């Protein structure tokens, strides 16, 4: 395993309500010195794959300000202070999709763009679903759609299914369910 670079300098480049950008100067083991910037995450996040007994998955359609369009995605959100990943997953599932789960399984902690982003998301499989609704912080009601994992190739070919975490989580869960 390589030796991590030495951090020579670290400073806040800018700060917003949600993110902090940090400037780093690093010296690598071969002596090379480089400047980097990274987004610092302020919280952990969960992405939930809610699966009904017949291997259908519950998805939500929500507006993605970053891509300026509506996306079909999986329920997700931040982990509040004092919450476990499972508690946050069950809360977000109820807020966004209108279901509660009796079985929650942590599958994988995933990073996004690790070269410049600190943020990670815990993928959680939700099973034993029953209708349950909690008030959430969404600016508008989310449309719920149910899709079969057996038609995953057709689902991810759609123009409104582009989020990488969602696609990876759907494949992960489909393979897991095939193996049991």
TrEMBL record:
Its cofactor is Mg(2+). One of its GO terms (biological process) is nucleoside phosphate metabolic process. Signal peptide: none annotated. The keyword Hydrolase applies. Residues 41-169 form the Nudix hydrolase domain. GO terms for molecular function: ADP-sugar diphosphatase activity. One of its GO terms (cellular component) is cytosol. This is ADP-ribose diphosphatase. It comes from Marinagarivorans cellulosilyticus.
């Amino acid at each position: 395993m390589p030796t991590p670079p030495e951090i020579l300098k670290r400073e806040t480049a800018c700060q917003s309500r949600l993110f902090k950008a940090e400037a780093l100067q690093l010296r690598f083991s071969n002596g090379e010195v480089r400047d980097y910037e990274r987004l610092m995450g302020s919280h952990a996040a969960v992405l939930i794959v809610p699966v009904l007994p017949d291997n259908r998955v519950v998805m939500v359609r929500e507006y993605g300000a970053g891509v300026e369009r509506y996306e079909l995605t999986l329920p997700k959100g931040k982990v509040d202070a004092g919450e476990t990943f499972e508690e946050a997953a069950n809360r977000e599932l109820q807020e966004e999709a209108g279901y509660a789960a009796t079985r929650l399984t942590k599958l994988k902690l995933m990073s996004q763009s690790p070269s410049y982003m600190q943020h990670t998301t815990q993928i959680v499989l939700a099973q034993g679903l029953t209708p349950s609704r909690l008030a959430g912080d969404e600016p508008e009601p989310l449309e719920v759609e149910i899709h079969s994992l057996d038609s995953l190739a057709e689902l991810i070919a759609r123009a409104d299914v582009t989020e990488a975490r969602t696609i990876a989580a759907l494949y992960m869960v489909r393979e897991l369910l095939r193996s049991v």
